[in-house]
Amino acid sequence: MRGMAEKQATMLSAATPDQLVPQDHPIREIKPIVDRALSELSPTFNRMYAEVGRPSIPPEHLLKGCLLIALYSIRSERQFCERLQYDLLFKWFLDLNIMDSAFDASTFSKNKERLLKHQVAREFLGAVLAEARRRKLLSQDHFTVDGTLLEAWASLKSFRPKDGGSEPPATAEKNPSVDFRGERRINATHQSTTDPEARLARKGSGKEAKLCFAGHVLMENRTGLVVDVAVTQATGTAERETALDMLEGVPGAHRITVGADKNYDTHNFVTECRGMNITPHVACREWSNVDQRTTRHLGYQVSQRVRKRVEEIFGWVKTVGGGRKLRYIGVARNQLWAELTAAAYNLVRMAKLALTKPAMAA
Fold this sequence. Notes:
The chain is an alpha/beta fold. It is built from 14 helices and eight strands. It has helices spanning about 15-20, 25-40, 40-50, 60-70, 75-85, 90-95, 105-115, 120-135, 240-250, 265-275, 290-295, 300-305, 310-320, 330-360; strands spanning about 140-150, 160, 190, 200, 210-220, 225-235, 255-260, 280. Strands 1, 4, 5, 6, 7 and 8 form a six-stranded mixed β-sheet that branches. It is globular, with a radius of gyration of 24 Å.
């Protein structure tokens, strides 16, 4: 029998967003962790706002919104606010009712300075890692470090001489075609007018040069969680310098190991690691700075195998988290994005581990 389409809209309903989100949805494993982490940040939120005045959008909503943008590959904050108006899962995650209206997209930009000033994203990532420690998902002994290039939100056409010298001829079009043939453009003499902190860099020989930032990740080897993340200028040596800074922040005074690729097999990096009571499990070049004192141990082979898991983090950040081309201008705002995106990755990873734990126990 053919079913008939009902034209009459339901006038009254007692349904709530919580009833409409499937009970076995993976995000149900994520939301309690997020709520617990945000409750720990409540004193920080109190310092961010004045005690009197017009009530603002709760900062919890802004942070949850940033997480949803990363988890569901939302292209922009404006698109997120449009989707929040009709997506019941988003409203449930933000603890909104069905009839509650979405807030304006300008709320994100107006509150970014508050989030940056109080390092809220850094504290939130720390709270997520604290929950991972309570669940015994983090070890304090074995780590991996790596870096990648993140394309900046700036066009090569904006890469112009710092002294305001002569520019290559351009057509009269709205988006002109510019010919830079024959002009030597380097970071020492040129700078982007769109994002002055971006640097011209390339991944390797034969690759095209782009305006980029450098992204750095410190990964814990047992479960592959992100322990620390940083965005810096792409200077060419930033990978090793930032790696040492992140390793210095690892708690405890005991000896640890750090896996890395051949780019970290330099005299300075290996020497600095040994001086910090860190065993450098870096991949060996033809003339390596790592000798058999390190490579003869089984742990070195394990680190070399596990370190490749860090590429999964970069892959997720670029394909799902929106890091293929950065959305923000400057190091500070992209650092805030990186910390929240790393927290989102950790939440997904922790949810998967929680769902597979019963099967592993059986």
